[in-house]
Amino acid sequence: MFVPMRFTLGKEERLKSKKLIGKLYEEGKTIKVFPLRMVYVQAEHTSKFPAQIGVSVPKRNFKKAVDRNRIKRLLRETYRKEKHTIYEAVDKPYVFMISYLAKDEWKYADIEHKMKKLLTQFITEITQDEK
């Protein structure tokens, strides 16, 4: 059903659908590993991939678009490197949004560590839900 894993984050893996984003924030469950928050929901989407992801950084915390874009780039990169853990664990399609909560910019290594924790917590949560 799903496409073989590649270490890329292509167009089909990104969350763009306004309907899915609306459903995500209405029905989704939340996991927090500071400075990251993941809102996820199990939903059918048009992609061949098992997950679609969106990232967000609030304008309230980072006024300059340059800073917001850099943090979003870091979030996408850390997810791209760790997404194989999710792809191996899920068998249903999921949609999720990862938000950055801190008021200052963290180093790449710290964000990477927190992303690993967040994704493993997500996997344990969905395996508990299935039982």
Key traits:
about 130 residues, alpha+beta, four-stranded mixed β-sheet, 4 strands
Walk me through this protein's architecture.
This protein is α+β, with helices and mostly antiparallel strands. The radius of gyration is 14 Å and the shape is globular. The model has no long low-confidence stretch (mean pLDDT 91). The chain has helices at 18-27, 65-89, 108-130, and strands at 29-33, 36-42, 51-56, 94-100. The protein has a 4-stranded mixed β-sheet, sandwiched between helices. Helix content is 44%, strand content 19%. The protein has 3 helices and 4 strands, in the order αβββαβα. The longest helix has 25 residues, at 65-89. Helix 2 links the parallel strand 3 (51-56) and strand 4.
Shape assignment: globular
Radius of gyration: 14 Å
Portion in helices? 40-55%
Class from secondary-structure proportions: alpha+beta
Strand order of the largest sheet: 1-2-4-3
Brief rundown of the structure:
By secondary structure, the protein is an alpha+beta fold. It has helices at residues 18-27, 65-89, 108-130; strands at residues 29-33, 36-42, 51-56, 94-100.
SSE map:
Elements: H1 18-27, E1 29-33, E2 36-42, E3 51-56, H2 65-89, E4 94-100, H3 108-130
Parallel strand pairs: 3-4
Antiparallel strand pairs: 1-2, 2-4
Helix pairs in contact: 2-3
